[in-house]
UniProtKB/TrEMBL annotation, chain A:
Record keyword Nucleotide-binding present: yes
GO cellular component, as recorded: plasma membrane
InterPro entries (UniProt xref): AAA+_ATPase, ABC_transporter-like_ATP-bd, ABC_transpr_LolD-like, MacB-like_ATP-bd, P-loop_NTPase
Keywords, alphabetical: ATP-binding, Nucleotide-binding, Transport
Protein name (record): ABC transport system ATP-binding protein
PROSITE patterns for this protein: ABC_TRANSPORTER_2
Classification via Pfam families: ABC_tran
Gene3D superfamilies xrefs: P-loop containing nucleotide triphosphate hydrolases
Molecular functions (GO terms): ATP binding; ATP hydrolysis activity; transmembrane transporter activity
Domain ABC transporter: 4-232
TrEMBL record, chain B:
UniProt-listed PANTHER family: NEGATIVE TRANSCRIPTION REGULATOR PADR, TRANSCRIPTIONAL REGULATOR YQJI
All copies of domain Transcription regulator PadR N-terminal, residue ranges: 7-80
Protein name as it appears in the record: Transcriptional regulator, PadR family
Highest taxon of source: Bacteria
Amino acid sequence: MTFLQARGVVRAYGHTPALRGVTLDVAEGEILAVTGPSGCGKSTLLHCLAGILRPDAGQVTWRGERIDTWSEAARSRLRRTEFGVLFQFGQLVAELTAAENVALPLLLAGTGRRAARTAALAWLDRLGVADVADARPGEMSGGQQQRCAMSRALVTEPRVIFADEPTGALDTLAGEQVLTQLVRLAREQRTTVVLVTHEPRIAAYADREVSLRDGMVDHTGLGLDPALPGGSR
Amino acid sequence: MSTSHVLLGLLAAGPRHGYELKRAHDERLPRARPLAFGQVYATLARLHRDGLVAPAGQERDGGPDRTAYALTDDGRAALDHWLGTVEPPMPYVTSTLFAKVVVALLVADAGQARDCLIAQRRAHTQRLRELTALKTAPGARLDEVIAADFAIAHLDADLRWLHTTLDRVADWHREVRS
């Protein structure tokens, strides 16, 4: 059974086409970079794969089941349990502390308050930001916020992490530390990662790269580049 | 690269013989072009002739005599002068990659030039991934990470240039052929 798949996905914003028939397979446990110039449709593709957006045409399947036809509630449940999302700006809840932010997905899924906090603290510790557990996002550096957002994305132990330019707002070194941790944890837990980036340097953290151009997979250049021989798995 | 100045720098920590210098070089400058033993001894001989290093005792460890060398005051001054001199930032655009792409645009049609750029982009991307894997491996040494960072930054710059050039190919080709 295929893990995560897009088949002929089409999506437009008003009259502007963003995706013009994208077909793509994501294998379980792989780290896939989706690259391409700005406006090529890579973020829209990520949103469609993660069930945030519904395609206008085509299909998105998750473990053999079409999720693009699911209700908003069902897709939202999927995002709380099986998927984790990480955006350019952490998008933490400003009024909550780091630990509360990280515990949030667990609380929404019905985990008890104390167990959720324990799990949140464990993840913050794993990502080296336990010292800001009781700080609010406004009191943290960009790198700390993004690690906190990563803890929140990982706390439910999702099968797939969708990361949209996760280092875009960070300086080079902080960005690198965040990515190194993301990749290391993903490999340890066999979590699949779909990483959207326009930077070759960032895409190089992935096992495989798919480039988009004008809303389609670019087969002429690096599109569907095979994984490195003797790669990471 | 100035091998003499690198060797002077490695001697700043104290006297070393040729074999130790070669090892320190490989450790501190990982991924540098390999430095042959012969080159180390030839460079030491030249530095000695110029009074920048001086013999500082011999060691015999069951094998051949090994002369240790120490930095002289002149050597220290030469090293400080080198470190204090700013490297000219890219005075010429000299790169085989750059020259090859320009020539490809001159002699090949747009399609061939594009294929050449795409093949190069693939090779660069592959190397970028290898170096990224190397520096993110658990337990990677700081020396290795810094060397990989340097190579990655340059490959990244080349890749951006290759991407832009690919986008320009059609126009440029028309211009150079007209």
